[in-house]
Amino acid sequence: MTEAASGYTEVVTHAKVREVELPLGAGTMALITLDNGHDHTKPNTLGPATLASIDAAIDAALAVPGVAAIGITGKPFWVAAGADLKGVQVITDREQALEVARTGHRVLGRLGGSPVPSFAFLNGAALGGGLEIALNSTYRTASRAAGALALPECAIGLLPGWGGNWLVPNLVGADKAVTVIVDKPLNNKVMKADEALSLGLVDAAFDGADFLAQSLLWAAKVLRGDVTVARPEIDRTEDTWTEAIARARGIAATKGRNTYPNVDKAIDLIAAARTHSKAEGFAAEDEGLADLIMSDTTRANLYAFDLVQRRAKKPAGAPDRSLARKVEKVGVVGAGLMASQLALLFARQMKVPVVITDLDQERVDKGVAYVHTEIDKLVGKGRMDTDTSNRVKALVTGTTDKALFGDADFVIEAVFEKMEVKQQVFGELESFVKPECVLATNTSSLSVAEMAKDLQYPERVVGFHFFTPVALMPTLEIAPTDRTDDATLATAFAVGKAIKKNCVWSKDSTAFIVNRLLMRGLGEAITTVDEGTPFQVADEGVVKAGFPLGAFILIAMTGPGVALHTAQSLIEAFPDRFTASPGFAALVAAGKPAIYQWDEAGNATVDPEVAALWPQGDSPSTAEQVATRIKEAMADESRHMLDEGVVQAPQDIDLAMIGGAGLPLPHGGLLPMLDREGISERVTGRRFLPPGVASVPSS
Amino acid sequence: MRREVRDVVFVDGVRTPFGKAGAKSQYAETRADDLVVALIRELLRRNPQLPPDRIDEVAIAATTQTGDQGLTIGRTAAILAGLPRSVPGYSVDRMCAGAMTATTNVMAAIAFGGADVAIAGGVEHMTKHPMGEGFDPNPRIIAEKLVDPAALNMGVTAENLHDRFPHLTKERADAYGVASQEKYAKALADGKIAQDLVPIQVWSSEKGWGLAVADEPPRPGTTMEGIAALKTPFRPHGRVTAANASPLTDGATACIVAAAEVAEELGLPAKMRLVSYAFAGVDPEVMGVGPVPATEKALARAGLSIDDIGLFELNEAFSVQVLALLDHYGIADDDPRVNPWGGAIAVGHPLASSGVRLFSQLARHFETHPEVRYGLTSMCVGLGQGGTVIWENPNHADYGKEDDK
Questions:
Q1: Shortest CB distance from A35 goes to which of B38, B200, B208?
Q2: Chain B within 8 Å of A64 (Cβ-Cβ)?
Q3: Model pTM?
């Protein structure tokens, strides 16, 4: 496949070779520096031309007369962020995939098989292939200033396929290999130099200020024999390995539920490393990596990773950033839990004054007190220092006097979910705030346009919808009305970015993106319960459909009343596809917070009172059937949403759902899954995403 | 409570390899402050008995205080080097005598009791910051004939010095330059230079990372014949050439000084004891003569005569200015007490940093010359100044004894 045809051009990282006279008369080192010529915002990546450059550099290094050692290091701040994933995404056949694996093994493997010792100096962040450069080398040092050292492959549908899967267990043993290859990536954790040192992944750690000079001095001492690097024999007993592998499978099952074959494969390779020779291990990685690259699930995983890394940073539909107004004071209307969470978020991330208001002083005081308590908790956990806590506490004030909103630049309402109440709030606010003050609503299912229609300046109103818990859920739906002006919309996106959310543009239609899709899917699960499916079987079906938790647990978390209200709005807006469940209504009417009850051991059983009030038919479905119906329903709803222009592009449905519904990243996104399982085509007549975007491209 | 003057000692001194300023300098793409940072860290490694929080001052000199040599480099370099935040720092400028002044400043503070232990040094990255960068001369200098504008050019002042002392000929200047190269080359071969040289990591966008381990400026094998026909860029048919002047240089130096009693408390070596120092001004047009009045003052304050000085480390901005000082005291051009390891003509002169190189080298000489009791370090300074510091050798039998002098 030519570069032009695939639309992919590799940003080449050049391997530069320089002779270095080592201290202590230890001889000459040929030092290879990896540098793509860009600053730290564009990390080095390892594509085919880069590997060729490294290959040539190793040739040049070995050709230096009397060379005593090879060194390899990165540019300032970065060794490498891993293999060039863009290049992986355009691969169309298995031979190409095998070639990627084999070339990486061959080139990086030269560092391991070099006639003179090789030293990898991890002067900056080294992820995936970047770290494998070091793992393949004879010796390794790491800088304490290096931002991250990791093998994140298991989190993105791959495995450490350039030697890491065999080298790590053979270096540090099975259990530590499980930690590095499986545990950390699935828990979104990376290592710093000292941890890598204590795990035995690197041989020495030095401060950042003079890292390379100290590493070269250390290398000199190693070459002279002044320093001996311990390489203790690893424990190869079967029991030790079995235990470690069992631990790995456990992590994969909990964290990686809904992950696909890559984690299992990586664990298989760790197990095999107990007895595989290096050649066998590398060959197994070749085949494993090729299989994964040619799998739709891995492609979906890479697609989802790309959404969260890149699309989230430049939201589609956002006007030019320069149109945003400065926001130097924020108002929050409402002092309930949601509003208080919002106040804390704004104060903490934007460091601007935040004024909370509510119906009476008692409610206001409670809201401010909540903020203070949360801040104290952060200080207690060591996540905020006392100076900052004083600052943030002082920023959040409460009042019943709306005149204090006079100089606010951005006011968000999180009051009771009833149109008349919200309209009244906005109408009253307008008499106090500036004409350009953005009025944002956190409504989950009411019409933003309706809320704004009687205002004097409706163009400054915008939907700004969070997910609970606000501190954790990344998605923020931003919904302009037809009258919202660009400055307001730009300001909304700027505020969203300032509070570190993944902003997704949504049309001002009922329940925007996530809740609409969720309620369609979960609504289907509820329907199966109405038909007679046991609650726990339905929940199993929800999990099988790709959700992190069962429906009824999700609903319990949101609050059944809120969920019901959203459901009712959707039934009103789309009566053909959303139906009411008498059982669910009864649950809410009875004031029950959840379907389940939990005993001390944490076991959940259906609350018999709930079972009693919920009318059920006699056509139960299996969990499998429930899952299929949920997926079909969401495919149908997604197609309607795309046709209605609810989102700028299908990618935004996936981005919103990943950060709003807790769909785990390895899941690869909702739409890719529906495409992959043929459901999109079966239900809506065609795929959501063209082949190659989140699946293996056609050749 | 009345203060007593305390004895101050020189504990340790290091420098970076020097780079030949220009696009091809080994430091062309390396920051000046990173040079200082590396030296501070090395001083602490070499002296592990010194707890970093006992450092009371970090005084770093640079002539052009902007860019990577700007914003109170003594403080920024301390933070970048990982010193505790409680350690204060500041910057100094007395052009070529920056590091010398930084050191005398902190030593005076120590003597008074305003500090116990200090780091002092200097840096000049002349590739990035040529002499006079950013300077805006006051028009009165010309209007009121305060200073001959030509005097702002160091090479011209050296020619002026040849005018003032016609017996200090081009031949003598050339011979002095050749000797400096020879003495440096021998010291290098004997392993003397490497002792206080700190390898520095350097970046090149063309070649990647590297390690600076050697001085770039020296020109070994220089002969009288080879340099006789060199251009005289500061005056047609002049006397000052590249062979009898120091090259433009990139580099840094740093040292630790301490109160003698604190050095003893901490178990730090005392390699030299401060006896006296002086700075003096002279006509900018003949700035090279600066060391003369500075030395007179320092000797007088020390109650010593030139005959008491057993070793000299003199900065070699130009051969003629060294010869002017030697001539003043009737010391021969090739007196073995003078710059035994060569000087700036060979190794280079990164403007603000040279003073501490002189100190470090004198301290090394003291180690192997216990018969020498007093040593003298001196330099000339642009805009017409001189600075001299006199030291006592702790290895000498009479060290610390009261003299009648």
A1: B208
A2: no
A3: 0.92
